[in-house]
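Lab notebook, bench 4. Still working through the backlog of constructs that have no structural model yet. Next entry is a single chain of 274 residues. Request: give me the structure tokens for it.
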Amino acid sequence: MAKKKNNPNEMSFLDHLEELRWHLIRSTVAVVLIGLVAFLMKDFIFDTVIFGPKKADFPTYEIFCKLSKWLGLSEAFCGDGPAFRVQSRVMAGQFSAHIWTSIWAGFILGFPYILYEMWKFISPGLYEKERRSSKGFIFIASFLFFLGVLFGYYVVAPLSINFLGSYTVSDEVFNDIDLGSYISTVRASVIACGLIFELPIIIFFLTKIGLVTPEILKKYRKIALVIVLIISAIITPPDVASQIIVAVPVLILYQISIYISKFVVKRDAKKERK
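Model written out:
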């Protein structure tokens, strides 16, 4: 491992690369170790977590069923759950799915540690005041990520699975969903929402470096609304209710990002006046 010099600014480019390499190695080791634990917990990971949104007694379906009855809407979520079977058509399909699902579980659960390693690499280049003001970065970023993961798992994934798994073009066609396709739907819903919920953190840093201002965010709010609706249409079934359910939290995050950008600009201006 490269030795740090007394002044971090005196580290050469190769020293920085060496530092980055070790941070990446430690992050990878953490993901692998957590993934190994997930690998050993196969029954819980697959039967309870992965295939949870496929079961009729999944909490989301029960809540949406009661809500749709109360509002007098379609009772599509009331029933025996999505009518499809999951199959594996490749010799090593189940084993491969087991390994990759464990690795992704390691990434999701190890996300706070990955952020910690990233922060350790970036923080020496910050001023002392900047480091103090960013103490809660890992906690807040991790909280938003896991909040997004839960939203993706309990809202986006069930909406997608219920619609796509039950959709038919003819009674002659039965939905036999490939194991890899099913898992990728759940994984994409969870990780995409986890990353989308990092929007306030991204806006915070973009404002800090001067690439974004509150005025820009307000000016392009309508464009952002269209983009959010497009993203919602891509990751959810093509019905208005599902798109609104997904779009509303993202729009709230966008509005929060505007307030965060305002706060950063005011604080920096106050520091300059002092």
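Notes after review: The chain has a mean pLDDT of 81. The beta strands are 85-87, 176-178. Flag for follow-up if needed.
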